[in-house]
């Protein structure tokens, strides 16, 4: 496949930047689709008449932008388009991925039982000290591309009731929410918070991104129909591969005055609680 000529003039952009932009344009234009294998570094270097180091630097640029994924021993591929998760829907990673006609999977990294007297980190400490907890560490994949890392804490008695042994959880097609639903404990409500964080060194290798790359951290506390806490998950997603989506409306009844009040909105069966945190000032002190 032919590539446009590079501009080698004295005022031209660096060659690696030109290569990166050429490839980005071809990806955007559909020459290379999601999951397609890109030409090899030596092949591109020969075709464009540049050094392999230039191609490596161009690929580094595209990787930071989330446009490509490197798979050791296989090559460099166009990254899948970001998966979208609605903030008003309490759904699982598996459901979100399958709804987008993609294949979800995971790899179990750790399966740890936290006893009553064991030391607890912030995640496990969400449960009372009287509750034994099972802590799962999992890499989440979409079409075999790593997009997230989940640390999930669950009450040990719930894990036992659902028969979630380490061997069961290790199955690549395992779905936690399906397992909980099978014993009538599917999450009914949840609190969720998001923030941007740099990728820790321990997570970088699992997610195939550089240390310090931007990740989206999602903390979710899920409760069953009775209001009991049944799951706490600390999820980190590659920012370029996973996005959150919500629909906003100004049609809320906010005539009440006060330092804060709550409004419940029922939209297609999904309950969203909006907290109005500022006093409404309508013509205060004006005639």
**Uncertain stretches:** 85-89, 252-287
Distance between the termini: 73 Å
Number of domains: 3
Q: In oligomeric terms, what are we looking at?
A: single chain
Largest sheet: 6 strands, antiparallel
The CATH architecture of the largest domain is 3-Layer(aba) Sandwich
Gyration radius over CA = 24 Å
The rough form would be described as: elongated
- Indicate the CATH class of the largest domain: Alpha Beta
Which class do the helix and strand fractions yield?
Answer: alpha+beta
Q: Determine the strand fraction and express it as a percent band.
A: 25-35%
- CATH-assigned fold name of the largest domain: Chorismate lyase
Mean pLDDT: 80
Please tally the β strands and state the result: 12
Number of helices: 8
By CATH, the superfamily of the largest domain comes out as Chorismate lyase-like
How helix-rich are the residues, as a percent range? 10-25%
- Give the ordered list of helices and strands: HHHEEEHEEEHHHEHEEEEE
Query: Taking strands numbered 1, 2, ... along the chain, how are they ordered across the largest sheet?
Result: 4-5-6-9-8-7
GO biological process, one term: negative regulation of DNA-templated transcription
Organism: Amycolatopsis taiwanensis
Protein name: GntR family transcriptional regulator
Pfam families: GntR, UTRA
């Amino acid at each position: 496949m032919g590539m446009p000529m590079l501009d080698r003039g004295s005022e031209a952009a660096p060659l690696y930047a030109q290569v990166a932009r050429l490839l980005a344009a071809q990806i955007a234009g559909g020459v290379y689709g999601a999951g397609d294998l890109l030409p090899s570094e030596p092949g591109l270097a020969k075709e464009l008449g540049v050094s392999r180091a230039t191609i490596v630097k161009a690929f580094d640029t595209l990787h930071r932008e989330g446009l490509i994924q490197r798979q050791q021993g296989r090559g460099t591929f166009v990254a899948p388009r970001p998966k979208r998760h609605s903030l008003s829907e309490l759904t699982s990673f598996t459901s979100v991925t399958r709804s987008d006609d993609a294949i979800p999977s995971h790899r179990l990294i750790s399966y740890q039982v936290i006893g009553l007297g064991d030391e607890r980190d912030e995640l496990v400490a969400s449960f009372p000290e009287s509750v034994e907890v099972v802590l799962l560490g999992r890499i989440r994949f979409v079409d075999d591309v790593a997009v997230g890392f989940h640390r999930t804490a669950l009450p040990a008695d719930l894990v036992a009731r659902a028969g979630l042994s380490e061997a069961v959880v290790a199955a690549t097609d395992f779905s936690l929410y399906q397992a909980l639903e099978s014993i009538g404990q599917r999450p009914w409500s949840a609190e969720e918070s998001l923030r941007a964080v740099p990728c820790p060194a321990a997570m970088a290798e699992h997610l195939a991104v550089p240390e310090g790359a931007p990740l989206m951290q999602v903390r979710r506390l899920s409760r069953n129909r009775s209001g009991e806490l049944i799951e706490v998950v600390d999820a980190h997603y590659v920012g370029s591969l996973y996005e959150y989506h919500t629909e906003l409306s100004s049609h809320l009844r906010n005539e009440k005055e006060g330092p804060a009040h709550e409004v419940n909105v029922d939209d297609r069966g999904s309950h969203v609680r909006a907290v109005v945190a500022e006093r409404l000032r309508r013509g205060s002190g004006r005639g």
